[in-house]
Amino acid sequence: MMTGNATERHDWTVTGMDCAACAAKITTALERLPGVTEVQVGVMSEKLSLRLEADATSREMIEATVKKLGYGIAPKGEAVAGRKFVMPAPPPANDHAGHSHDAKPSPQDAGHGAPGHDHASDPADRDKRWYQTAKGKLVIGTGLLLVAAWAVKLLASEQIALWAFVAACLIGVAPVARRAFAALRAGIPFTIEGLMTIAAIGALFIGAAEEAALVVFLFAVGEVLEGVAADRARASIRALANLVPKTALVEDNGVTREVDAAGLQIGQLVLVRPGDRIPADGTIAEGSSGIDESPVTGESVPKTKGPGDAVFAGSINAEAALRITVTKSAEDNTISRIIALVEEAESARAPTERFIDRFSRYYMPAITGLALLVAVIPPLLFGQLWGTWVYRGLALLLIGCPCALVISVPASIASALATGARRGMLMKGGTVIEAVARVTQVAFDKTGTLTMGRPAVTDVLVLDGTEADLLAVAAGVETGSSHPLAEAILRRAEASGVKALPSSGAKALIGKGAEAQVAGEPAWVGSPRFAADRGALDGLGIRRAAEMEAEGKTVVVVFRDRRALGLIAMRDEPRGDAVAAIKQLSAMRITSVMLTGDNARTGAAIAAVLGMQHRADLMPDDKVTAIKEMAATGGVIMVGDGINDAPALAAASVGVAMGSGTDVALETASAALLRNRVTDVAAMIRLARAAMGNIRQNVTIALGLKAVFLVTTIFGLTGLWIAILADTGATVLVTLNALRLLAFDPENER
């Protein structure tokens, strides 16, 4: 499909999708077009993204193909059938090469299981009551015709009633047949619409008009129920988009004006009044107030914040007026990033889901072949009645459609992702959920993860010169650094009235410290071991450092070339919920280990307070080695927040970034905890385990009902209307079961 021509990524909004089968139908149809690659369809986000060679296929052809399948489509951000799409655009997508499909389904594979179930609807139906939608009106219309036909049968003539049943069947099946034909032309022969059409028309030919009309009616009811269930799941993502206010008050040279919040620029100053939602990610420039972050992170207790503190878009300013400097554009704010992660997670399919997709590709043609054999073998070989066995074959066609099986996994995954997102727990797809559910060990970074990440200087020991000289050099090295230890040193220098010496060329020495040219000479702030290796720390300094480390303090040495100026000791207290988190993990039979670059004495002191194992004096590559050793005995989660944690996050079965962490950690990690609560690690594992339990229930329901009704249909115990109930009923059951996860409380210890 690829040629030498350049391709570009294009995005659309697609409406009318109710399940993963809808996405697969669109994917299969578009992948058959020349010059189309990397097709990604998100059911919950209603998003279509693909790469396109303009010379091979036009955007108009893409839109025409989707419309023929019965869905609404418009370029991202534009109106769909006259309605404005209001979800803010996520950050620009990259090529998503990591989320490509395992294999491109061929036309013969593209059945309901590869899959082709269609729930197409009028795009303008979005946000309407079910009875106001096109599918709802079809249900009401066919239902009234069915009731009228029964009334005629009871009160008048059965012959007239027969034609009423035929009319009800044909009217109800007409839109289904149109969609089946469109799918067939797109190279998707095995769809529930196609099987439904064959079964209904076949039933008319063998004189089962009444049952055919009932089957068509029940099918329409099932579609409406599936649509309602999908909308409920999708509403969670839409609710996120609606958290950010549409307008903002910008202050410019003392003048306040109202502007579109989506157009805010980095560096602008916005006024947020008490009770207003914050329109953009930023830092407080003026004022102090309680900030309710529960809409974004799920944290129920408001936080008091003042000048210099960061705030999230969508949070509520509870008390006093604030002036906030915008630090991120609308497409890159916290809400947009959450939405983008949830959308991206849809394409990261779980292994179970991929297995079921592959299974369904073979299952659907096999069931179709079985139905054909049931219809023709008994009459041909054993002289049985054609009408009886054709009827059973038609029922088998409907029974065999794997609707419920195909939707069983993605419905549960979507609900779990939405539930986690509402509580500040972001997981990047079904693969992550499955991996989290299987973990037996959790490795934690110390600073900023198990501890507050805001250490305070407790001791300053001068070895050469004065305390002011020591702090001036240390501040010069650390100026501009965002490392927690650096910030503690800068705060101490400021509190002591010491100005940092002019510096240049500052750089971090990962796992060792930092260096810079200070007042024209090289200077370092590093660990005692690093200083000793450089020949700057003698026996006295080493002994004093060891004594302070034994008290659970972190010690750094400030030194010039082979000359220690002094020691600075700091202590970072454990987070208030860290002890509870370790206890919860232990109760879940999960081992907790602290991995820290800090010295062994400090590591041991913190680990003793928390009641967990620990490994200290670790460089970033040592953490990776430790993670690999742990992974040899079972799944492992790594939780961290710094640049030096990124390699370990990538090496773990699941990397989890704390929400206050660096962008590098957040991008490298497979999941993120926006509330900065250690107990959310246990909550995330509970949610993942609940999701996998829900998936197992759904697969059991789907396959169990199919197995029972396949047998009863072959033996003539159940007929067409039971067959369609088994199909749509099972689909609705697994969808409703998946929606239970939306109400699941992962913080409830069970």
Structural description of this entry:
Among the domains are: 8-125, Alpha-Beta Plaits (2-Layer Sandwich); 247-332, Calcium-transporting ATPase, cytoplasmic transduction domain A (Distorted Sandwich); 425-452 and 575-673, Rossmann fold, CATH 3.40.50.1000; 456-571, 3-Layer(aba) Sandwich (Calcium-transporting ATPase, cytoplasmic domain N), CATH 3.40.1110.10. 48% of the residues lie in helices and 18% in strands. The chain has 24 helices and 26 strands. It has a seven-stranded mixed beta sheet with strand order 14-26-25-24-15-22-23, with helices on both faces. Strands 6-5-7-13-8-11 form a six-stranded antiparallel beta sheet, with no helix packed on it. Helix 3 packs antiparallel against helix 6 (209-241) and helix 6 (209-241) runs parallel beside helix 11. The chain is elongated and about 110 Å long. Mean pLDDT is 80; it is low at 82-124.
CATH topology of the domain at 425-452 and 575-673: Rossmann fold
The CATH class designation of the domain at 425-452 and 575-673 is Alpha Beta
- In total, how many beta strands? 26
C-alpha end-to-end distance: 51 Å
Helix content: 40-55%
Report strand %: 15-25%
| Major β-sheet strand ordering | 14-26-25-24-15-22-23
Which architecture of the domain at 425-452 and 575-673 would the CATH scheme give at its second level?
Answer: 3-Layer(aba) Sandwich
How many strands, what sense, and barrel or not for the largest sheet? 7 strands, mixed
Shape: elongated
Structural class: alpha+beta
Please tell me the overall pLDDT: 80
Q: Provide the low-confidence segments as ranges.
A: 82-124
> How would you name the CATH homologous superfamily of the domain at 425-452 and 575-673?
HAD superfamily/HAD-like
The count of helical stretches stands at 24
Rg of Cα set: 31 Å
